[in-house]
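Researcher: Hi, I'm a grad student and pretty new to this. My advisor asked me to get structures for two proteins we've been looking at. I'm not sure of the right format, so I'll just paste the first sequence and hope you can take it from there.
Model: That works fine. Here's the first sequence with its structure tokens right after it:
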Amino acid sequence: MISAVLTLRTPPRDASQRWAGGLAWVVVGLLLLGLVLPLAAILGKALAGADGSFVGLAHFVGIVAAPGFPHIVGNSAVVALSTTAIVMPLAFGFAAALTRTRMPGKPLFRYLALIPLLAPSLLPAISLVYLFGNQGLLKSWFPDGSIYGLPGIVIGEVFYTFPHALMILVTALSVTDARLYEAASALGAGRVRQWLTITLPSARYGLVSAAMVVFTLVITDFGVPKVIGGQYPVLAVEAYKQVIGQQNFPKGAVIGLLLLLPAVFSFWVDHALQKRQKALLTAQARPLRPTDSRMASTAGLLVCVAVGGSLLVMLGMAVAAAFIHLWPYRLDLTLAHFDFDDMDGGGWLAYRNSLRLAALTALAGTALVFTGAWLQEKLTGAALARTLIRLFAMLPMAVPGLVLGLGYVFFFNGNAWLPLYGTMSLLVLCTVAHFYTTAHLTAVTALAQMDREFEAVAASLKVPLWTTFRRVTVPVCLPAILEIARFLFVSAMTTVSAVIFLYTPDTVLASVAVLNMDDAGDTAAAAAMATLIVASSAVVSLLFALLSGWLTRRTQRWRQP
């Protein structure tokens, strides 16, 4: 009798595996809908004429041969190369100070350096207007409004991309075998020679990866050049103008595909370097301890103070602009700029929509990402589905947000059988797809740390796959799940490029409202909305940190010694 009850309540292993295989194909279908088909729609639009007929590469030839197009491409390349050349030494020095010295205040500087991640890319551009614009606090530094153009774009992009490069370089400089430096010292090599022969070669992969990330982010960014670019055209803004301003969808599709090329090239370089990268740590390796040199600590502190102070000034200027009555004539404080309902841009509805989008993205995105990663890593059957999940999950890494947004316009706006265009559901799908790769890699890293014996033992005891997932996998990976949810929430609050083509008056977002208010001349209100985005992202990040700490103490006691 008991065995019969257990047989009824415990499905056989093959049944749970079959259900999991079906779920894997559901995940493949969602990734196909959210990534592959929109990108295919861009290609189709670029190869079709106004009447839908196939025209081949005619649009590409026409755009490339246009008189001003090489100039726009050159401008984008100059901005990207200049920003990369500035960000890389700053981020490397900052990362070296955090990992290789004993300077005080490391946690403070680490959190300070990550502030730009909480802000939309338009915030640094607005700050630069108040600092160096025609009525700026330091307008004498850039006379005649010369901040509008190349200098302003580069400075804004440095603020926007710095934390991305820093995170990669901190990781690269944290993995080093102390025995290499001991051997170099024994052979009489000085600090400069050690830096040239050990530090740089060991961090080579991180340096190239960080440079590629910065270059790609800059050349595809839309927010900074749109606000402070002036008469300095770049590719990302040109794509926006073609689609929104001129309704020239084929030309917008072609520029979108051209924007895809730097990201694909960066992805290819990164993949090639991964094959050549050798292990830096062996079983006999010893971790490198930060140097006791007072000179190195002082130099690192100066670098961190200079860079961190600059980031804080940029953020502080935007916050100050949100509360100052009328810059620079009336410097008394006011809350009038937060009365968004009396201004263009979407009002408080935009802010509520952003909170809703961020919450739905965090919930639905975390469930989809972690389930997909779990099926990829732990499922024994459905080999083709698992391969497709792995392939599609890496695709967003090489697709800029502006390109993905264009794909959504071309695919979902032209398919009546998918009534998603103009809805919040489409914005959620696009945002999850845009940031899928980073979240997926986080989940895979957490799942890879778990031995496959968990599932094998559960199967031998005839425990369903779902029970193992609920009672073992989720509790063990809970810190990673919360980190994925936090990342998706903050990313949804700050994203601009991926959703700029998809919103309607009913689904307008706070980050888009910043752009619209700035276009309407309400720069102070735009600064107020950007400040609200930063504050919301910071509060939610703090809440996630507190929740993670509480849940870790309750569910991760096995990690404690």
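Researcher: Oh nice, that was easy. Here's the second one.
Model: And its structure:
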Amino acid sequence: MTEAADKREQINFVSVDSAPKRFAGPVSVWQAPKMMALFTVLAASQLWLINTDAVAAVFPNRDYVFSVHAGRHAIAIRIFLLSFYVAFAAFSSGGTWVRALFALDLVLTFLFGCAAFDLANAFAHHLLGNSFSLHFSAIASGLFGFAVYSFKLLERGFMPARIRIEHIPVSQLRACARLAVTLAIAAAVAIWVGGMDLHIVTVMRSWTLLGGIGPGVFLFLPVLFGQLYLLAIYDVITAKKSRFNPPVSVIVPAHNESYIIRDTIQAMDRAAAHYGGEVHILIMNNNSTDDTEEIARETLANCSAAKGRVINVPKPGKSNALNAGLDACETEFLVRVDADTLVGEDNFSRAMPYFTDPAVGVVGGVPVPPGGALFDRARLLEVLVKHGFYSVAMGAVNGVVGIPGMFVVYRTHDPRYLGGFVEGMNGEDTDISLRIGELGFHSVVDPKIRYISEVPSSYGHMREQRMRWFRSIYHISSRCRDLIYGPNMTLRGKVILPYMLVNSARRAMLVPLIVFGSLEWGLAFNPDSPILWQSIIAVTTGAPAIMAVLSALLNGVPRGILALPEYLIFRVLRAYFTLESMLSILVDATAEDLERAIRLDLVPDRPIRVA
């Protein structure tokens, strides 16, 4: 562990990016607990009421289901969602009237969708004599409920303005073929295994690894992403071979980084020596109040392979520093590195040869924690799963949405062409990678490009970081809503961004869902409910544990498996931070019609570039 890592406990990082003033407000540490208390009261009251004899006669399925369904549900998902909607809206960031309208919008939209689904079910039952299973209805209601929450928050929250996304179509034949084949194989495996009577399934259920999920459903996503991962690794192996070391500029936004900036620069100097080409380091001193500038100047003067200078950027905000660095860049290629990132010796050497392919526009790698602090072991598994597995796998079908700004390489022309890094919102790194991808370029995540990136060592610092990170998906989706609602059929816009929004909702509801499942199981109001304690535990231990182990093995880091208990606990904490992050979004009384806004005929402010 470096000396810088030892000093992390002294950091209480806060910047203008922690809560962009137009889009986010402060959230007390007591706001989410109070919301959870209200949610618990609402949920317990409704569970009791729905199971009284009089109400159960109207709703025999013991949930707000308005037509006959076959079978039983595992959880009263509609009661859960309505309780969550009301509790969340009650503690959202807005006035009393604003919160009331938000709750009403959520509840009525969800009930209208459920009524439509139940009407279709009743119609099918009348015509065909068969109805949907209650289990299927619960899954459909849950997914719809997640989507309602995400998109209503997007509509009613104060969000970045929509921009025109320039899209240059390129052939997606290979990506579509790969996706179709892997989907078919994953479905076939899921169906095959689901029909087998395996002893291991019984064992996994007893270990709470499956809960109430069938083995076929459980296997579908791991098999799908496993295939995509192998295809992506094949692409990495068969890609660039020739040495390519043109001059590069490295821009490093730095705000009060005196504890680590010397290590950061020295790591880049070692990487420059290994690279063999010219490396120009630009330390963008962004309104620091400590001795970041002095340490950076002294360290740059002592570099043996790299050259560099410090540029003062008095206007606070990471994007301001990045754009000043973009303006100062005089090379064809640009590397963005965070001030708390220690690049690996071979990072430049591995990343740059990808750009011999003119179709490549962005290259990144996998961050690893320095080790030794509270969250580092859990963070190791997190990055192996997210960056070392899922992000790598999505590269096989050109579906990478964003590459984190801790270490990422661009062609300098592309960020300039797009107007630089967006200011005043969260997620500027994902925004620029996403838009470069829509210009027809490929984004590469090479799992062999590894660098050490700081992990907060205190609860307060971790909370600040994750609230900033988790809010960014809404900022990006609002700003880039052309992709979601526009006519261009892109994987990122029509599948991945909506999925990320729905997944954000699922994560925000994870802790309330655990509480709700515990209420249903513990209070046992419904004697016919099949919910088991294994199902409740499986929400946090089943699939996440198996994917973490798989990712650690595929990335050649088996020691990461030892951190599995900490990782599973951290995932729950991460979900709680997501909930707090959503509570920080400022809510308006008037909902924006996102789809209608997209139909405005905007003229681009620059000529369309031919790829």
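Researcher: Is there anything I should tell my advisor about the second?
Model: You could mention this: The longest strand covers residues 442-453.
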